Amino acid sequence: FNLKWTYVATVIIFEVQSVLCGAAPNMIAIIIGRVIAGMGGTGIYLGCLNYFSSLTTPKSVESTLF
C-alpha cells in the first residue's frame, strides 16, 4: 500500500467517526463510533511509526541508540 494514502485514509476514518460520536443520539452509537474511531487512531499511530522508519537510515538509528 502507498504509505501516504493509507495514512490519509486512517485520519479520515478517525475524523468521521469522531464527528459521528459527537452527534450520536444514544449510547450504542457512541460506543460503535468510538470503536471505529479507535481503529482509525491505531492506524494513525502505526502510520507515524512507518513514516518515521522510512525516513531514517541505519546510520542515524545507530547514532541515536549509542
TrEMBL record:
Q: Name one GO molecular function term.
A: transmembrane transporter activity
Its annotated compartments are: Membrane
Q: What SUPFAM superfamilies does UniProt report for this protein, alphabetically?
A: MFS general substrate transporter (SSF103473)
Identify the main location: membrane
Q: How does it sit in the membrane?
A: Multi-pass membrane protein
Coiled-coil ranges (or none): none
**Ranges annotated as spanning the membrane:** 31-52
Query: Domain Major facilitator superfamily (MFS) profile: where?
Result: 1-66
One Pfam family in the UniProt entry: Sugar_tr
UniProtKB keywords:
Membrane, Transmembrane, Transmembrane helix, Transport
Could you give one GO CC term from the UniProt record?
A: plasma membrane
By its UniProt entry, which InterPro entries does this protein fall under?
A: MFS_dom, MFS_sugar_transport-like, MFS_trans_sf
| Protein family per UniProt | Belongs to the major facilitator superfamily. TCR/Tet family.
Instruction: Output this protein's name.
Output: Major facilitator superfamily (MFS) profile domain-containing protein
What species is given as this protein's source? Hypocrea virens (strain Gv29-8 / FGSC 10586) (Gliocladium virens)
